[in-house]
Design goal:
Blueprint lengths: L7 H5 L4 H7 L3 E3 L2 E3 L1 H19 L9 H8 L5 H20 L4
Antiparallel strand pairs: 1-2
Helix pairs in contact: 2-3, 3-5
């Protein structure tokens, strides 16, 4: 059984760049292993929070369409942020999963 089948949101997005980065070998962040997908999720949470709550673009070249494509999510505003947070909850559960 594939571990992604336990996590429906991740399973639906198995062909996205995010899942590829999440399952790729980790990089080193402050001497600790972390996948590129987890790193991008941390940064995107900050960026989406700024965009939805404060109506501020994190930087000049930031585009919400790139976030949608990378994570395989849809929606606008608060709905997009909520869907992203649901995905983040699944990723947190996957990271804590001892079968991993």
């Amino acid at each position: 059984m594939n571990i992604l089948e336990t996590y429906p949101m991740l399973s639906e997005r198995r062909n996205t760049q995010f899942v590829a980065d999440l399952l790729a070998p980790p990089m080193s962040v402050n001497g600790n292993p972390m996948s590129q997908g987890v790193w991008n999720m941390i940064i995107t949470k900050r960026d989406l929070s700024m965009w939805t709550k404060l109506k501020i673009k994190p930087h000049r070249n930031w585009k919400v369409s790139q976030v949608k494509t990378y994570f395989g999510i849809k929606g606008r505003g608060r709905k997009l942020f909520d869907q992203f947070m649901e995905l983040k909850t699944e990723v947190d559960a996957l990271i804590a999963d001892p079968r991993r």
